[in-house]
Amino acid sequence: MSQPALVLENVVVAFGALKAVDDVSISVKGGERRAIIGPNGAGKTTLFNAITGVNPPTSGRIIFEGATVTTKPAHLRARMGMSRTFQITNLFPRLTVAENMQLALRGTGPGKFSLFGSARLSAEEEERVMSALAISRLGERNSVEVHELSYGEQRQLEMAMALVTRPKLLLLDEPAAGLSPSERIIVSDIIRALPRDLTMVLIEHDMDLVLRLVDYVTCLNNGQLLAEGTPESISANQRVQDVYLGKARDHA
Ligand SMILES: Nc1ncnc2c1ncn2[C@@H]1O[C@H](COP(=O)(O)OP(=O)(O)OP(=O)(O)O)[C@@H](O)[C@H]1O
Ligand SMILES: [Mg+2]
Questions:
Q1: pLDDT tens-digit map of 236-247
Q2: What residue owns the CA closest to ligand 1's atom 11?
Q3: So what CATH class is 1-81+167-252?
Q4: How far is the CA of 248 from the centre of ligand 2 (A)?
Q5: Which of 101, 115, 121, 243 is the most buried (most CB within 10 A)?
Q6: Are 142 and 98 in contact (CB under 8 A)?
Q7: Domain-wise residue ranges, the chain
Q8: How far apart are CA 197 and CA 183, in angstroms?
Q9: Which ligand is nearest to the CA of 47?
Q10: Which ligand is nearest to the CA of 46?
Q11: What pLDDT is recorded for position 43?
């Protein structure tokens, strides 16, 4: 069997006395689609920040594609094939879709954030941009300034920006948050149509979406791993329902 794409061993992320992530061990297979669920404040985004190197663990170990990356800086992990979207949109509103894509593409390369100094995109880079925009259903919106996009299209652009580097691991932090029902359908169609060899970890509150999109679910509560299993077994799990689904109903 091939090695797992991502392994977390006893990961702790502490903020002072608070253990936002408390001794979490997870293993995600190559090509797997995994959801991380749990109530507000469970530690989901903090876990993503540990995986991507934005805020490395206080203790424990993170192994990506067989290499220990626990304390490696975020840009090196990105270069190794990790890509993520943020819970809060992270776009340049006065630049066009194409310009935002160029920044995302060049962000991991040597000419980091030099939009104006660097040469035009190569044919290969152009092809990557167009294919990531097509997957994200923004193929026709290339020359539009980002502030003119709908909120849903902005979330789609974030996904395109995360895909343009052709990552091995894609981490999506609530990509459907704040979207209308029809926009949510677009986002879930995009996720479903992602390349099958891409490993994906998705933070999402909407259990209907989770059920339709992932192979396996990890539920966190108070920074700790509460339960893991297939979407069906997790949605039927009494402990998960008690801590998470009840609260999800409250805040829906
Ligand atoms: N930089 C920080 N400094 C101090 N405490 C933090 C920091 N970031 C997160 N926390 C705390 O860590 C805990 C976990 O937060 P986190 O954002 O990871 O939760 P979450 O599961 O993503 O929640 P949500 O569903 O609301 O996005 C919370 O109690 C939060 O207040
Ligand atoms: Mg979060």
A1: 999 998 987 555
A2: 20
A3: alpha beta
A4: 14
A5: 101
A6: yes
A7: 1-81+167-252, 91-166
A8: 25
A9: 1
A10: 1
A11: 97
